[in-house]
Amino acid sequence: MPLQTKPTVVFDLDGTLADTSADLIAAANACFRGLGHGDLLDPVADALTAFHGGRAMLKLGFARLGQLDEAMIAAQYPVLLKAYADGIDTHTRLYPGATDAVEALRSAGYATAICTNKPEGLAETLVTRLGIRGLFGSLIGADTLPTRKPDPAPYLAAVEQAGGIVSRSLIVGDTETDRLTARAVGVPCILVGFGPEGPGVARLNPEALLDHYADLPGLVARLIG
């Protein structure tokens, strides 16, 4: 099919393609240890907070100390990013079947892209180390453009740079941010039921829920042809 009319599947990264929570929590805990507080976050119990970003993790930890201070969060955020970059793939793993599903979509003629609220440089490093960068025609991060999801601009850029067409595209994600992005653009949304919120994402009323990556090609075909 012509390059500029390829149907396109746009993926979120954290909590959708890969479980990055343990490495994110470890980076936040490195900040707290450096301040003499020890590990304040739990890699399992606080996994959902991890997927809301570095500042959210810092806010939670300082709140537990009764020291919620925006200036302190701002000061520790660069420390967190460095700690995360140093151990970005220590515990992170792709969800089962993710690679096979993306390869199947590409073989069927779909363009594939990543649109994430992780900083672009960190996202590029992670997907390269996970061995999947070549499976995606574009990668748009939190700082690639002046705005981030759920603003529609990053999604639109991801589709365009992948050689796709927005009117035949959809997003695969795991959080309300991805659902709101889909609504802002006017495209279908598939939310994974194995991410940080589990089956609870059904409350967001996506066009489809994904329980296993093996089911993704069929869902995509049904939603955008």
From TrEMBL:
<dbReference type="InterPro" id="IPR050155">
    <property type="entry name" value="HAD-like_hydrolase_sf"/>
</dbReference>
<dbReference type="InterPro" id="IPR006439">
    <property type="entry name" value="HAD-SF_hydro_IA"/>
</dbReference>
<protein>
    <recommendedName>
        <fullName>phosphoglycolate phosphatase</fullName>
        <ecNumber>3.1.3.18</ecNumber>
    </recommendedName>
</protein>
<dbReference type="Pfam" id="PF13419">
    <property type="entry name" value="HAD_2"/>
</dbReference>
<dbReference type="InterPro" id="IPR036412">
    <property type="entry name" value="HAD-like_sf"/>
</dbReference>
<dbReference type="InterPro" id="IPR023198">
    <property type="entry name" value="PGP-like_dom2"/>
</dbReference>
<keyword id="KW-0378">Hydrolase</keyword>
<comment type="pathway">
    <text>Organic acid metabolism; glycolate biosynthesis; glycolate from 2-phosphoglycolate: step 1/1.</text>
</comment>
<dbReference type="InterPro" id="IPR041492">
    <property type="entry name" value="HAD_2"/>
</dbReference>
<dbReference type="GO" id="GO:0016787">
    <property type="term" value="F:hydrolase activity"/>
</dbReference>
<dbReference type="InterPro" id="IPR023214">
    <property type="entry name" value="HAD_sf"/>
</dbReference>
<comment type="similarity">
    <text>Belongs to the HAD-like hydrolase superfamily. CbbY/CbbZ/Gph/YieH family.</text>
</comment>
